[in-house]
Amino acid sequence: MNATPDIVAAAQERSGACLCGLVRFTVRGKAVFPHTCSCPHCQKLGGGPMMWWAGFEPENVTWTGGELTWFTTFEGKAKRAFCGTCGSRLAAIDIDVPEIGIVVTALDDTTGPDLIPVNQSFRDSAVAWLDQVPDTQHSTVG
Questions:
Q1: Distance (Å, rounded) from C-alpha 111 to C-alpha 134?
Q2: Which one-letter DSSP state was computed for residue 39?
Q3: What sections of the chain are H helices per DSSP?
Q4: How confident is the model at residue 6 (pLDDT cuts 50, 70, 90)?
């Protein structure tokens, strides 16, 4: 009996860590709405022209090792997490999004087809010299 792609995706497990390796995590299942974000907040947070995010169901995210430091980015709306030792940005929780956002570049392997960005949020804030990510899911964000 062959497994369907949905069963394979649901069983998929990936690991990741902060730069110093103190905080490690595992995510299971297929990534939800992988995208880049060019908002001024993500540009400053990530130290570059954009950040690369993907969502995972909260019950499918396991943190191990060191403790995450959470800070409020937008009061009552969003918070972000990072390693308190090396400062690596790792996660986000937004009240209007059911999944936990994971910074894709914190994953040990970023090659999965379900991690390919389907949109670029906040296109108006994007740097002019970098091509934008095509909006393949026709999102209303950005």
A1: 18
A2: -
A3: 5-11, 40-46
A4: low
DSSP at 113: G
C-alpha separations of 62 from 85, 100, 103, 133 in Å: 19, 11, 14, 29
Token digits of residue 2: 């062959």
Residue 4 tokens, joined: 């369907």
Give pLDDT tens digits for 57-83.
Answer: 999 999 999 889 999 988 989 999 999
Could you tell me how many helices (H) and strands (E) the chain has, helices first?
2, 10
Give the C-alpha separation, 66 to 46, whole Å: 21
Contact present, 49 and 127 (Cβ < 8 Å): yes
Beta strand residue intervals within the chain, DSSP E? 13-17, 23-28, 32-37, 51-56, 61-65, 68-74, 78-83, 89-94, 100-103, 120-121
- CA–CA dist 31, 114 (Å, integer): 6
